[in-house]
Design a protein that fits this description.
About 20% of the residues lie in helices and about 40% in strands. The chain is an alpha+beta fold and about 375 residues long. Strands 4-5-6-11-8-7 form a 6-stranded antiparallel barrel. It has a 4-stranded mixed sheet with strand order 1-17-16-23, with helices on one face.
Length: about 375
């Protein structure tokens, strides 16, 4: 069985002969990908802020919280009705079309008053589904306790649930949903973007080579545009940019974020043993090694025999057990693997012809032998 459809290359490869790559192996891009600065780094001052709130979803078709099992839902329902001027004294409510939820959202940077953001709601009690519900007006606070947004609207649930007398089918999670544009921003975060003297770019994938490359590209642009260098790589994560005296900071940001940079990344092999997924980076190299892989297969067949008694005897029909056990070894061939480039490495792994779990074991063995020149990440 080939490795087709299992090994996925998310790294980049360049050079002749790629049209003959092993089947099932995808090759994307070049050895060093060229990307815009805005795609590989973000501004330190421009970050999201998390919001959270507690609310009620109403209008459920009997799939809400059991009020006896979720007392906080009943307390919240009574408090909401009292705020609306409705007395709830005496008698216990048995409504099961209400669910208590936690409401979360990300407040984007430079968000203006009155703009809308997406909201996620998640059940807090024992509700079985939020499909068809409506979130009642819910205030959302930041880490400082201040209210920054108010959410309300219909909950969109993509999960499907079907239940019968003897079977239940569920696809997705029905106790969580989204409200696209469901929250209105009521308070702005004070913006000081124009008042700062420079920019700090933070790399999404820290790497010294990429950070130095960003600084060099920005300095090459500023030499021609402003007559001098303005960028400095502080470490593998951040690049500081000084604002020229004659430049507007917003315009400078727009000019820099479109510059093209050659990105780099360390050699890694990522293995997920639960799903059998293997991701090999382009810079992974393997020294020449000999690999053999075989698995022992034991097969047990039960073939009971029916034994009849002799004619005119007092015997009875009996069942005599008969077990057939066979054992064999699959595979076992020896393959020479030498990976000076990604295409050769994958061709060598494919030549062994083992299943994904075998490939994972082989890669771990090559790493233990010191022949895999890359970081091995197990998930």
């Amino acid at each position: 069985m080939k490795l087709a459809g299992v090994l996925v290359a998310l790294a980049c490869l360049a050079g002749p002969g790629l049209e003959h790559a092993p089947p099932g192996f995808s090759v994307l891009g070049a050895a060093h990908a060229a990307s815009r600065i805005k795609d590989i780094a973000s501004l330190q001052a421009a970050r999201d802020n998390q919001l959270i709130g507690y609310g009620l979803v109403v209008g459920l078709q009997g799939t809400g919280d059991g009020l006896r099992n979720s007392p906080f839902t009943e307390q919240s329902l009574r408090a909401m009705l009292q705020n609306l001027g409705i007395s709830t004294e005496g008698g216990a409510s048995r409504a099961n079309n209400v669910a208590a939820v936690i409401v979360t959202a990300n407040l984007p940077p430079f968000a203006s008053l009155g703009s809308r953001i997406d909201v996620t709601v998640s059940s807090l009690g024992d509700a079985t589904s939020l499909r068809g519900g409506t979130l009642v007006m819910t205030s959302m606070s930041g880490a400082d306790g201040q209210i920054y947004a108010v959410a309300q609207g219909s909950v969109v649930v993509s999960a499907v649930t079907a239940q019968g007398d003897a079977a239940t089918l569920q696809q997705g999670v029905a106790t969580a949903g989204r409200l696209p544009g469901g929250a209105i921003i009521e308070r702005e975060i004070p913006a000081t973007f124009k008042q700062v003297d420079g920019l700090v770019y933070q790399l999404r994938n820290p790497d010294f080579s990429t950070a130095v490359g960003i600084a060099d590209v920005i300095n090459a642009y500023s030499e021609a545009r402003y007559g001098g260098p303005i960028a400095e790589a502080r470490d593998s994560t951040s690049v500081a940019v000084r604002k020229p005296a004659q430049a507007d900071l917003a315009r400078l940001t727009a000019e820099l974020e479109g510059l093209i940079v050659e990105t780099d990344s360390p050699a890694r092999v990522v293995i997920n043993e639960r799903t059998g997924t293997i991701v090999i980076g382009n810079d992974v190299r393997v020294s020449r090694v000999a690999v053999t892989h075989g698995t022992l297969t034991v097969q047990i067949n039960e073939m009971p025999e029916i034994i009849q008694p002799a004619p005119f005897s007092d015997g009875v029909t009996a069942v005599q057990p008969l077990t057939d056990i066979t054992a064999g070894v699959d595979g076992g061939q020896v393959a020479i693997i030498d990976g000076p480039d990604l295409r050769t490495l994958v061709a060598g792994l494919n030549s062994i012809g083992v299943k994904p779990d075998g490939i994972i074991a082989i890669l771990q063995g090559i790493k233990s032998a010191g022949a895999l020149h890359a970081e091995l990440v197990l998930q």
